[in-house]
C-alpha cells in the first residue's frame, strides 16, 4: 500500500495529460463529484447546444429541421461516434431508446438466431437487465429459462444448451470486470450468442467489441459519456447479423423505407432495424456534445488515470478511515476493477447522505454499499485527497448520525 500526501496528489495532477479536459465541464464550486458512474457532469457546451436546438432548429425552422439540421440522421451519426469508443465499426451502432428497451430488443433478436432456450445471466446484475429478460420470457413461454450465475462460475454455466450469454461488463455494485474476450470466446465455442451491457464501461475502459467477436451490446450515454439525465442508450449489432436477427419492436423508424408508408412492416437490413419510433431530438443533440469531448482523448489514457484514481482512493480510505467500519468490496486488482470503488458500511445510507452534505457526492446501493465513481476527464488526484479528508471529518464527528441523514429519499 502506498502512502500519499496532498503534495503527492498535486504533483500527479501536474503530470496528468488529461488535466485540461476538466475545463470542458460545469462542476459546481467546491463539489467533489464522485458519481459520474451514475450521472455524468454537464459539459459546458451542452447549454449552448440545447438553446440552439430549442430556439433555432425547433423554434424557427420547425419541421424543416428534420432535413436542414440533420435530425433524421442523428441516431446513426451519434452511433458512429459511440462505435469509436466501444471498438465497433461505422454502421454497427445506433443511439436510441433506454438501455432496458434496447436490451429487450437485442435479447429477442438474438433468440431468433437459435432454437436453444437457455439464457445465462449474472444473478446480482443491475435489476433492470434481469427484469427485462424475465418479461420477455414470460411472453415467449415456459420452454425458456434463465440460468443465473455469479462471476466465479459464469464460465461453467456456459454449455451447449445455452442460447444467449447476457452479461454486464462491469458490475454496477462492486466494479468487478468480466473478461469479455474469454467469456465471448467460450460462448462462441458453445454455439451461444453474446450480449454485453456496457453501461459501466463505455467511456471508462478500452472496450473492443469486434476484437472480441461480440454479437450484440447495449449501453447508456448519461454516465461516463456525459449525455445528460435520461439521455438515450445505444445498441451495437455486429454486421454479420444485419438483416437476420430481427427485433420485435417493429416501429416505423426500423422500416426499410420509413417514408414509403407501406402497410406492412419490412425491416431495414442494416443497423437501422434496431430503431423503433420517432427519436428524442433534444436529448440526442445534447448527447453529441459529451461524445465530441470524449473523442478528443485517448481511451488508454482514460483507463490508466482511472486505475490510478481508484487505487489512490482505496489506499487513502484504508489508511485514514480503516477504523470507521468501511469494508472494501471492489477488486484490489486494478486490471479487473472498473472506474468505481465500493465499500460496505453498516450505516451506509446515512453515511453517504452526510458525505453529500459536505459536497462529496457518491451514491448508496442497498443493503449497505457506498459507491464512488471516478470520471478521469474531470476528477483530479487532489479531489481524491480532499474527498477522503472530508470523509474523515464526517466519521470523526459522527455527522452521519444526525436525524436528517437517516431519512430515506426516493432516490438513493
Automatic annotation (TrEMBL):
* Gene Ontology terms describing biological process: anthranilate metabolic process; L-kynurenine catabolic process; L-tryptophan catabolic process to kynurenine; NAD+ biosynthetic process; quinolinate biosynthetic process
Subunit structure as annotated in this protein's UniProt entry: Homodimer.
Per the record, the domain of life is Bacteria
* Transcription listed as a keyword: no
Q: Which pathway does it serve?
A: Amino-acid degradation; L-kynurenine degradation; L-alanine and anthranilate from L-kynurenine: step 1/1; Cofactor biosynthesis; NAD(+) biosynthesis; quinolinate from L-kynurenine: step 2/3
Taxonomic classification: Bacteria, Pseudomonadati, Pseudomonadota, Gammaproteobacteria, Cellvibrionales
Q: Which NCBIfam families match?
A: kynureninase (TIGR01814)
Q: Which UniProt keywords apply?
A: Hydrolase, Pyridine nucleotide biosynthesis, Pyridoxal phosphate
Full protein name: Kynureninase
Q: Which cofactor does it need?
A: pyridoxal 5'-phosphate
Q: Which residues are annotated with the PTM N6-(pyridoxal phosphate)lysine?
A: 223
Show the GO cellular component annotation of the record.
Answer: cytoplasm
Q: Which reaction does it catalyse?
A: 3-hydroxy-L-kynurenine + H2O = 3-hydroxyanthranilate + L-alanine + H(+); L-kynurenine + H2O = anthranilate + L-alanine + H(+)
What EC class does the entry list?
hydrolase
Q: Which family does it belong to?
A: Belongs to the kynureninase family.
Residues annotated for pyridoxal 5'-phosphate binding in this entry: 99, 126-129, 168, 197, 200, 222, 252, 278
Q: Which InterPro entries does the UniProt entry name for this protein?
A: Kynureninase, PyrdxlP-dep_Trfase, PyrdxlP-dep_Trfase_major, PyrdxlP-dep_Trfase_small
State what this protein does.
Catalyzes the cleavage of L-kynurenine (L-Kyn) and L-3-hydroxykynurenine (L-3OHKyn) into anthranilic acid (AA) and 3-hydroxyanthranilic acid (3-OHAA), respectively.
Keyword set includes Hydrolase: yes
Q: Which GO terms describe its molecular function?
A: kynureninase activity; pyridoxal phosphate binding
Signal peptide positions (record): none
